[in-house]
Task: inverse folding
């Protein structure tokens, strides 16, 4: 292979399958089709909820990446295509500031023609993820406003987070009022469990994060390995230890990013553009 050959030759003119009944193609298709030259085939007739739901009726199989692999593989099985995509999100507390919410979105690509697995990622606090136990309309309305309702939908049920009488996709004030009356009537405790609906088609913030993960994936697909030319030369690790500008000792800041090829094993360390770290993050100068 020669370096002059564009890396998108691996993908151009191919078809990739995405199983989604939650409109995720709206987030993935624009960057994916325009920049890789692939066509996205959407299958909305397969119930991806059997691989886990955010509202806990079905537990997700294994890790976030495992779940994405199962979905991508299923789409490839159903269509016979050798290129499969899947998107999988997780929500939880911020890794450093536990009272803030956190969202991690993966968009995975499996390519059986060239034996490649790549994933793009978004990780950050841009999410409305949250819940509240409410006893009446004022509390419900306050939570709804804080969650970006009605542009973002809500889920409601009586009493607690596992009650089977679940109402999803509540997206208007009238529906919320009606659902709240029903949930409080059915409740044993006089409270209702209200939470954000994290399904992509009713959560524009999550949709934007899936789009960012898809763009990250496309960047990786179009980054050729300098040694073997295969797609997917991508950051795999960050190495800390950027030297302090005063004393020169290593600090917890990132000093370089390691890129690696999953195919041939070639790797490269790219130093960050800063040469030194400010002394206020230095464990010696500012213990
Ligand atoms: Zn120092
Ligand atoms: Zn390589």
Result:
């Amino acid at each position: 292979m020669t370096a002059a050959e564009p890396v998108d030759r691996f993908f151009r003119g191919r078809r990739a399958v995405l199983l989604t009944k939650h409109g995720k193609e709206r987030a993935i298709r624009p960057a994916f089709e325009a920049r890789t030259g692939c066509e996205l085939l959407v299958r909305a007739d397969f119930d991806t909820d059997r691989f886990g739901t955010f509202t806990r009726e079905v537990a997700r199989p294994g890790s976030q990446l495992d779940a994405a692999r199962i979905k991508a593989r299923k789409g490839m099985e159903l269509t016979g295509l050798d290129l499969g995509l899947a998107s999988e999100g997780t929500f939880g507390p911020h890794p450093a500031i536990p009272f803030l919410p956190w969202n991690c979105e993966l968009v995975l690509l499996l390519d059986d023609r060239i034996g490649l697995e790549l994933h793009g990622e978004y990780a950050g606090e841009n999410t409305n993820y949250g819940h509240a136990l409410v006893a009446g309309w004022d509390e419900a309305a306050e939570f709804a406003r804080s969650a970006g309702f009605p542009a973002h939908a809500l889920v409601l049920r009586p009493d607690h987070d596992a009650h089977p009488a679940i109402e999803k996709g509540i997206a208007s004030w009238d529906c919320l009022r009606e659902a709240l009356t029903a949930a409080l009537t059915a409740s044993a405790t006089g409270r209702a469990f209200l939470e954000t609906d994290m399904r992509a088609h009713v959560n524009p913030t999550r949709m934007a994060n899936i789009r960012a993960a898809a763009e990250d994936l496309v960047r990786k697909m179009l980054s050729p390995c300098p040694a073997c030319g295969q797609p997917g030369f991508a950051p795999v690790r960050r190495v800390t230890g950027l030297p302090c500008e005063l004393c020169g000792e290593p600090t917890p800041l990132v000093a370089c990013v390691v890129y690696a090829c999953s195919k041939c094993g070639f790797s490269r360390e790219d130093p960050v553009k800063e040469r030194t770290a400010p002394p206020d993050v230095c464990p010696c100068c500012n213990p």
Notes: Residues 234 and 259 are 5 Å apart (CA to CA). The chain has three domains: 7-127+203-222, 142-196, 236-281.
